[in-house]
Each structure stands twice: as structure tokens, then as C-alpha cells.
Amino acid sequence: MPTASHNARPNVVKVICHDLGQHIGCLGAPIETPNIDGLAAEGVLFDNYCCTAAQCSPSRGSIMTGRYPHNNGLVGLAHLGWRIGANEVTLPMYLNRAGYHTRLIGHQHENSEPAMLGYQVYETPKIDALSIADALDGFLQGDAQDGQPFFVSCGITEPHRPYEREDYDRDDAETLQLAPWMLDRPGIREDVAGLHGLIWRLDEAVGRMRESLEASGLADDTVFIFTTDHGTAMPRAKGTCYDPGIKTTLIVRWPEQFSGGRVQSELLTNCDLLPTILDLAGADAPPQVDGRSFLEVLDEDDRYEPRDDIFAEMTWHDQYNPMRAVRTDRYKYIRNFGRRPLVYMPADIYVAPAGEEMKEDFYSSVRPKEELYDLDADPLEMNNVIDDAAHDDVAWTLRTRVQSWMVETNDPLLYGDYAPVTAQRERNEENPMDNGVPHC
Q: What does the alpha-carbon distance between residue 33 and residue 204 come to, in Å, rounded to a whole number?
């Protein structure tokens, strides 16, 4: 099928929430999310879309630059001092050049100085889901009506921890169903009950946003993107390279241009989102971008060449946690650096009921130097087959693939440990909510 003809450059509304992973109904999670599911029914749902790092700032930095974290410099949390490199060009900067109005509504976690990101306008209402929905409605009824194409990033904090919040519903911890990768323990259930309440509020906000877009008269001219940064803040998800950490939600809706109700299973990385948006805007992505446009997938153009693999990494979070990984459709290979716990849990998980349940399991042994999982036979990644002779060829191939990627990109981890950004780290450890940014 030939590429669809796009008569004009569309507006783009990107809604990005915190720590959702794929925990929504239309991706098989045991929770009702009718508004998000409705968006998927009208748009294109990607079920094999992965982030570059299962942590806030580095993943978001990849969306903003189209580059892996160790390539763009944002290898740790922005509120602890890490930044996108000074020579990097961001998505709003590219779109400014292309004649777009660019606007940030609400939350970002890529720079402690938001002006450095290149948006023309910054709106900073409360950063909860319903406040962001109200602010987007105001923009769509106001400035958006002037005819200039626009790109708006709506940053929502839900469902980031804490899961115990006033004025949010909770699920029933005793009767709720857990995702298959979660262990059935009381602390896990307690946390998931609160997580569900935050996701319900997020879902309500998405419903309001869809209504606002329709009411504005701009829906047919606007690409609506719903996504998140990484997996849920639960043990063996956020802060890891396992699928519950790196697999994320992506829904793209453009009425009458992209046929709706589709589920696409191409292996994608969130580095691919920037060149895709630039493609929609009629702008070229420069060669240093790691991502590849998937506009042909949205257009159902059979000339799209699927990726063979994508990479994931971690370096710094609230602890030093270096690892590099490659994922194919069938296999996951992880290279771990240094002697560290079997499974690392970020601070917000470690101190929570779910983390308390898993400390003995995860912090009483050291993780292996290498991990290899056959995702067809072992989708929950519980059986490390790195020492299985039957997988020697796969292990050698993927080990070489990661090493070559690190060499090709001049990964600083090849030359030794990354140093911490100590001054920022100490300041924020004393006040994790410094500058209103959640401690991730």
C-alpha cells in the first residue's frame, strides 16, 4: 500500500504520564481504563514499544532528542543534576524551525531549567491529571485557534508514587487481580490498590482531553499521542531492563488519516518518536538521531523495514546501577556491571510496602554478570539461560551486539564507572521533592 497523502502538517498533542508502563486495559492489564481503551479503539496501539531506560529523565531525554541516554548525556535524573548535552537539539527546537508553535503544559523531567528545552511557551498549572486536562482545554479553545500548527506536550504526574493520596479512589487489595509478573504478596496488593486509583484519575483526564479536542473543532487536524516514560514503580519493573520496566504505552490517533482500532507489534524504541513527529511535520531528522520514523507503520505502508533489535540501558538513578541490554522479538540479553543486588529497586519502591516484601528476595544475593531470556518460552524473564549450551550462539550474538553498540557510540561506561553529580545529589537527597519534582 502506498504512503497516505497528508494534505497539511498536523497539529500534535503529546500526553505523557509518569510510571504507567503498559498497565492499561487494552494492553491486557487487569484494570478498567475505558477512556484510554477508547482512544486505542480510535487510533493505533503499539504493543511492542519500549523505552531506552526504565527511569524518568533518561527515557524522556530520548523522546526529546531521538537519542539513547549515553549519547545525549542525560544518564541520570534531572533533579539530581544530570542534563541533556549542551549541543543536543530537542524536539521543540526542531519544530520551532519548522514553523510550529511549541508549548509545554505541566510537567517535564528533562531539565531543572525548563527554558533550556526550547518550548516557546511554558504553562505551569498544577501537574495533576485533571489540572493538565483543564489547561489543555483552555489552549485548544484559545491560542490554538489562530491557524498556526502547534506541538503541545502535556506532562502528567499520575500514576507516580506515592500511591496513598487523599481524594483518590483505591481498588480493593484483597480482590484485585495482579499482573502475571507481580508476586502475590500483601504489600504488592496494597500498592497496586493505590496504583489503580491513580490510573483511574489519569484515564478520566484522557477522556476530558478527547472531549476538548472534539469540541475545539481541531480533532481532524491533530495527531493525539498518549504515552508514558517507563514501567510501573513496582519491584522488577521500573529501574530494570526487564519488560515490565522497558515496555511502555503508545497510542497514536489521527482521524481519517490513520485507520483506527489497529494493534501494531513492530519492535520500536521511544527514540523513534522524535523522527516520526518530524516526519509528520515535514521536517527531516538529522543523521545523529538514533531513532527511525515509523510513519510508514501508521500509514500502513508495507515498505517499512522492521527493526531487528532495540537497546536499553541504565546508569545513574538514586543509586549507581549500570547495565546495558538488547532486545529482539524473541530474546533479551542484559550485561550488568559491578557487584550489585540481584534486582535493584529505586528508592520510591524500596521504602514502599511492595519493596518491603521483596528486599529479602532481591538484596540477599548478587546479580549475574550476564542475563539471557528466551521471551517466547519465558515471557516473564524468570529463567536465565546464559549458561545453557543450547543458547550459546544466541548469547554470543547478542553479547557481541551490545559490545559493538557501546563501541560504536563511544559509551563512557567502556572506560570505567560514571561519577555522580554529587552536589545536586546531596541537595536532593535532603529534599526529594525539591522544586516540586517528584523523587523518582
A: 8
User: Where is 324: in which H helix or E strand?
Assistant: strand 320-327
Domain that holds residue 337: 311-430
CATH of the domain at 293: 3.40.720.10
Q: Which of 349, 330, 153 is nearest to 240 (CA)?
A: 349
- Grouping H, G, I as helix, E, B as strand and the rest as coil, residue 80 is helix
In the predicted model, is pLDDT for residue 435 greater than 80?
no
Closest Cα to residue 56, out of 260, 229, 294? 229
CA–CA separation, 131 and 210 (whole Å): 15
Beta-strand relationship, 262-264 and 44-46: parallel
Identify the bridge partners of residue 237 per DSSP, sorted by sequence position. 239
Strand partners, 15: 154, 226
Let me know the angle formed at the C-alpha of 5 by 50 and 44, rounded to the nearest 5 degrees.
30
Buried b (16+ CB within 10 A) or exposed e, 266-281: bbbbbbbbbbbbbbbb
Position 8 confidence tier, pLDDT thresholds 50, 70, 90: confident
Sign of the CA dihedral 217, 218, 223, 224?
negative
Q: Could you tell me the three cell numbers for 385? A: 539461560
Rounded to an integer, what is the distance from CA 213 to the centroid of its chain? Answer: 24
CB atoms within 10 A of CB 30: 15
Whether 438 is in a domain gets the answer no
Task: For strands 370-374 and 222-228, give the pairing.
Answer: unpaired
CATH number, position 364:
3.30.1120
269 and 150 in a single domain? The answer is yes
169-179 pLDDT, tens digit each: 999 999 999 99
Alpha helices per DSSP H over 101-218:
129-141, 186-216
Residue 304 lies in a domain: no
Cβ distance 280 to 10 under 8 Å? Answer: yes
